[in-house]
Amino acid sequence: MPTAIIADDERLMRDQLRLRLGQAWPQLEIIGEAKNGDEAIELVEQLKPDFAFLDIRMPGKTGMEAAQAIGGKTHIVFVTAYDTHAVEAFERGAVDYVLKPPEHERLLVTVERLKTHLNKPALDVNSSVTAMLSQLAEKITAKPTYLQWIQASIGQDLRMIPVEEILFFRSDEKYTCVQTAKYEALIRKPVRDLAEELDPSLFWQIHRATLVNVNAIEGVTRDIRGRHLVLIKGKSDKLEVSRSFLHLFKQM
């Protein structure tokens, strides 16, 4: 059976990639997981997998640095959330890649590529590829790292939701509701934590219990009590704006 390791500093991302790989390539055995580049290098030395899925950005040694250290000992597959630059960069390079969050159809393409490598010697990540990835790293590290997706519960199922699809977050005492145009999901993370992890240019906090996607705002109205309410495109929800956050709407 073909074997692989997964290296990513986010446990949820490792779990998600393991699950998706199991669906796309049931014969692939995940024989180890690492939280950083140093651990990935050790696992390759010890376990000698056919493939190593390396997140580009990890604490300690990055995925790129780990790939250079691993050399030709295994086939490298880079994992990245930054598809804007990554697709062009990786298509030109002698490496494979997986985009976060991993989608089944796109992962099937990657799996077919990897199968063709099974009986071939692994290639070193050469200087040209390293330079290309370094340029990519400069582009993506120039910006703060914000959440790209939310893992939320819908009934008994877990779903990876891209943040740009979320209309708003609204918390109660126990859960936070994640509202998209099509469905509602639940997470346990409070709004105060989400506000620190989401791009403030995309999500505005309008109440201690509410974050709203600025692209989902249809307008602002006032009720008979004088409260300011945010109207959401395509939804009947009206989200109350706390007095301390009214300044956000002066420009509207």
Mean pLDDT: 84
Encode the helix/strand succession as letters: EHEHEHEHEHHEEEEEHEEEEE
Beta strands, count: 15
The low-pLDDT segments are: none
Envelope shape: elongated
Characterise this structure.
The protein has 7 helices and 15 strands. It is α/β, with parallel strands linked by helices and 252 residues long. The strands form 4 sheets. It has a 5-stranded parallel beta sheet, sandwiched between helices. The longest helix is centred in the middle third of the chain and has 15 residues, at 127-141. The protein is elongated and about 70 Å long. The mean pLDDT is 84.
Primary descriptors:
single chain; 252 residues; alpha/beta; five-stranded parallel β-sheet; five-stranded antiparallel β-sheet; 7 helices; 15 strands; 31% helix; elongated
Give the structure's gist in a few sentences.
This protein has 252 residues and is α/β, with parallel strands linked by helices. The protein contains seven helices and 15 strands. Helix 1 packs across helix 5 (104-117).
